[in-house]
Design goal:
Rossmann fold, five-stranded parallel β-sheet, alpha/beta
Amino acid sequence: MTDYYYLDTSAQVKYYVSEPGSAWVRQLVNARTPETKQQGKRLFTVIVTVAEATAAFAIIARVGRISRQARDRAFNHYMKTVSTSFHLLAVTKEVIDLAARLTQRHPLKGYDAVQLASALRLQEILEPKDTVVFVAGDESVLVAAKTEGLKADNPFLHIAKGE
């Protein structure tokens, strides 16, 4: 049995911008497999996360939580590493249709529904013994993920001392 981690935008931003839960997300993303000492490519996200995460860096800078220089570093680092750190899932008509249905069952915003739909489609294509763990910092999407049958985890539950 293997756990595969699906990180939504809120979780990914914590890797690039220090905030509560960042240490745990960094540990998860930087995990190495014992056999190969290489990054275990068990991390997934949907391609639209690239636009959403980079927009988040800009918003965080605009509200003064990070400097422009820190925004630029986060943006550049993200753009260089996202495709090597994560399997990027495509947005398909099936994902959009499922996302639309999810918005009727749960109080989700559009992109949150696309994130959850992508994770659910990933779970469908994995071996039955394998598990997708949906990682997000938003309780409403985590509740929806659990209700839809996914395991879920919240970086805010893993806050290290001094974070």
